[in-house]
Amino acid sequence: MIASLPALALTVNGQPFAGEVPRQASLLHLLRNDLGLNGPKYGCGLGQCGACTVHVDGIAARACVIPAHGVAGRCITTLEGLGRRGHFHPVQQAFEEAQAAQCGYCLNGMVMQAAALLAREPQADEARIRSELSGNLCRCGTHVEILRAVSLAAARLGAAEAPEAPR
Amino acid sequence: TLKRPEDYRLVGTPQPRIDIPAKLAGELAFVHDMRLPGMLHGRVIRPPYAGADHGDFIGNTLEAMDESSIAHIPGIRAVVVIRDFVGVVAEREEHAEQAMRELRVTWKPWPGMPDLAGAGKVADAIRANPATTRTLVDEGDVETALQGEGTLRRTYLWPYQLHASIGPSCAVAQWEPEDGGDGAGDGRDGAADAAQATARNGRVRLRCWAGTQNPHVLRADLARLLALQDVDVDVVRLEAAGCYGRNGADDVAADAALLARAVDAPVRVQLSREQEHLWEPKGTAQLMDVAGALSPDGGIAAYDFQTSYPSNGAPTLALLLTRTVEPLAQAYEMGDRTARPPYAYDHLRVQVHDMAPIVRASWLRGVSALPNSFAHESFIDELATAAGVDPVQFRLRHLPDERARELIEATAQKAGWRWRTGPQEDAHGDHPSRPPQSRVGPGGDIRSAAGPLPRRNAAPSGGSEPHEVGERGGDIVFGQGFAYARYIHSKWPGFGAAWAAWVADVEVNRRTGEVHVRRVVVGHDAGLTVNPAGVAHQVHGNVIQTTSRALKEEVRFAPAPQPVDVGKAPVPVKAPLPGMPPAGVVATREWGSYPILHFREVPVIEVLQMPRPGESPLGAGESASVPGTAAIANAIFDATGVRLREPPFTPEKVLAALSSLPPPLGEGGGGGQFTTPSPDQAPQPPSQPSPSGGRSQTLAPRRKGWPALIAGLLVGGLGTIAGLLGWRPAIAPVSFSAPAYSAQTIERGRQLAAAGDCAVCHTADGGLPNAGGRAMHTPFGTIHTTNLTPDAETGLGRWSFTAFQRAMREGISRDGRHLYPAFPYTAFAKTSDDDLQALYAYFMSLPPVQAGAREDGGPAVMPPNDLRFPFNLRPLMAGWNGLFHDPTPYQPVAGQSAEWNRGAYLVNGLGHCAACHSPRNALGAEKAGTDFLAGAMIDGWEAPALTARTTNAVPWDEGSLYAYLRHGHSPRHGIAGGPMAEVVHGLQQLPDADVRAMATYLASFNPPPAADPQALATQAVQRAAAGQGALLGAAQRMFESACAACHHDGDGPTLLGANVPLALNSQLTSTRPDNLIRTILDGVRTPPTRDVGFMPAFREALDDAQIAELAGYMRARFAPQAPAWADLPAQVARVRAAPGHGAPAAQGAPASTPAAV
Lengths: 167, 1157
What we know:
Chain A: This is Ferredoxin. By secondary structure, chain A is an alpha+beta fold.
């Protein structure tokens, strides 16, 4: 059996987690296997594809390259924590409306990366969205729908944030 | 009766998909998300012959497996070996991964694979592959018709490509216990279980959750592999990541079934990214030889089409590895899709050369039709050019299919197709001066062009034609290309799916060769369209994936090994090395070496769906991909006048083709030429040591000349004699249990220990802090650090303060033995008695543990030292000390500020910065004077110069040094990596004032700060960015896909961690590539501070050649002022093999399993 393992405490989707976790465990393994979350996906283990993206203290991060112990004490948000069915985050909502998925495996990363961008820059334009998503790979070629979805979310969030137009 | 189309209410209207909300919410949707109670995690270890699927070595190559190599990993439940099938099962996934990496497996030599690396090799291999010729069409007399002089003969080569699913394949398998309890076999003997397996009562014995395309075929495969009957096996299909053909989904299902049989629990097996890339059956290469000729009346006299398709049986891998099926070369009749061209010819012959695979392959979107149509549609464009007819017009004239003609006309209309009869007529864009009647689209009608168009003179660049307007100057040329195909699939003569036509608008940079597809207009006739939203989505996906395949995608294979120049004499490579995959195997293991289209490159896509409500619905999944590559190739021809016949159309290929053209008129001959602008090779002005008035000399150790050295050696000899006489006494052991030190003193000691980074060297990988056992690799041999905890037998437990103080000041152990200066007592001697006392108090307060004690509770590891003669003679150190050591504590320098003196005390005392950062002489003593802190190699890393000798783009100043030491990075310098990361981590314990003092002192060895250091940084970044466009190639694409998401100049994604521009990083500017190579190999797992972020290790994912290519590119791009590093492949091999800080332990990288990832 596994001998005593180093203790780890962090916050996931607003809930505290405390447990014994091997040093080798990645944040992705912790989230998927110890916490049973499906949102973050294993894609490459090298931070190249973005399928595993989560937020660490609100910043997009590749969970596959982060040792779980490396984010001790920090706040992790996964797709599940962004919004649940019936209470989707505006980015998830826009992805549903724009039908921005083919197989959907990359969807988690697209949504999480876009949500982090729009939290910082609610009025991001298409060029900004393209460059922000340039490290997220999609094999199915859903890029057109994804760009449409993020632009839709940006239009809504940007409108909510924008100062009143001068009259 | 069927409902009449006009009565449809839902059919023909866009409908949303029902699966998307669950996927957006992270609910169970993919096989990857399948979990069962008690589920274990499996990983496989593949043999070295990645890409092979036939040959007697398959299943016969395993030599040995050493299970003890993973005995240290907790929770291992099974190791399964069946011939060449090797797998492990662990309770936790990270331990299964670790076991996959560390299980020592050795493989016998095997015959190797055909050499597919380099120009022409794939085509040669196809031509050499035994084939059976099938004649599909033979109408008229092609041979005679093609004897004329005007015959065009062309060869087209399609590359090996990946399915490239974003999610590597995954499966879960569970064996049902048999009645009577004894459920699973032992996993080692497939045949033995067969007999009992047959006697059951209709119960499922094996259940497998898989992302397979073919559950029925998989079920039969599993039954065969496991000696079951089909009805014993239940395959539960779940969604997997899109793969557009057959990837590793079936393979991993069989892997899971084998591993689950060995344990009494369900097992989930996840292939690694590397395994998926290496082993997925590839989309095969294909070779098309075409000949054709025009007839005198402008028709097509004859067309001869020969296509060679190395086919795609791809038996499920476990069947081959276990030798359940024989690994035979088998040919399948699958190269014939859309082999018949759509046009009318007077004489037509179509032949397919059926052949066995060369590399393990399976169908990939547009199976054989896409390459065949690439050839058809490229060739028809050439014929049109030869005939002097607009290519769309030319097709329409020879196309008998009325439905196709309607599609082509509508598509050309929508795209605003501009008539052309040769290349470069519109290469500079759609000039407002061009008469609108020459355009089809809103302003024209292609039907009106009944006869041949008047051939306009090509008006290439230059002359009176205005150059391309805008900031891009004349480098960018535009082109428009057309292609059409109807996908004919299934067994010859097959069935037709949707009709599709493309108009692609491209821009080509004539200086760099880059091709950008700006816009694609696709006309699509899928018959009755049930859900037009779904069809539009499929067309978008087809366009993007096809553009990606046309521009970027190609599997690379390992070249035959070249002799590596290690040192002076070239040494031929005998055994495979860890970083050198065997010749001929797949060398593409991650996205950097197999880039796919990303968001910045996505074209505008417009879809025209032909309304066909009364017609049969046709497949829309693949059709839109089929004409795409030819449309892009034809557009590149239109822009540049060059025909590309071997995708992918990379910048290198475009440039090579352009440079073989005569230069365009009126451009001074420069248009088609490309020369790499030579980076400024001027040597940097030699940096000067500190201008600040000899302060360094005050504090640096005394410099002693060669006469003194010789004298010292003599003294050392005397010291040897003295040492044999036992001239240094032991200090009596003490024993006490409760040292009487105050909490404040202990706390101060803790901070001082952090400042001294004691734990960095005195903690082994996986060992308890301060327990020692870490190997220090010095030029004189390897020594292991000692135990600083107060353990009586192996640590400081019996040391009095006096003994501790003597060790720190004089380098002499309690028992009187000399210590080696790898323990930096030469620096620690400068520490005050007060501080030594606090340090001692702190160590005595630690819980005592045995030397080399392990974090995981395993047995302590304390290997012996291994020093070369004469360095293994400790008494010689007496002479050494006489030469090089000054044991007096630090004395403040008059005339310097208190802060500077505090900094000097910390830097030269406990901080012992010079121990790493000063070069050492032949006897291992730190050099002084201008060499003080001037940079050195330590533990496999370069500790860069901290003085004016820095290679950094921006010199160090106090602010940057403070930021670096405090936060682990500074905006104008790189990030603390390697051992320095741990140093900075330790410095976190120091008060701010001490860190500032260190920065103040260190800054005094640098020139006075620049008036505007940020301007220098900006200049360096801009200088690097300016040359970027001239550095295209596979290495550039690798950097963009493997590195650029995190490492960019502010124009990419924001991700966790600091992103300091690489142009400012000393890893790129140094004269040595060691730190860069080490960082690529081993990544950043323990960053100095939480600001810095993490980096993956590429050791398992990139081979030496790839890392060398990447490092060479990064040097040229980010340090264009510096000369290229020499012999990079050999340097990568050296660094990979060398031990060093952060490198995995030797057992983790057995040299005999280079491809066992």
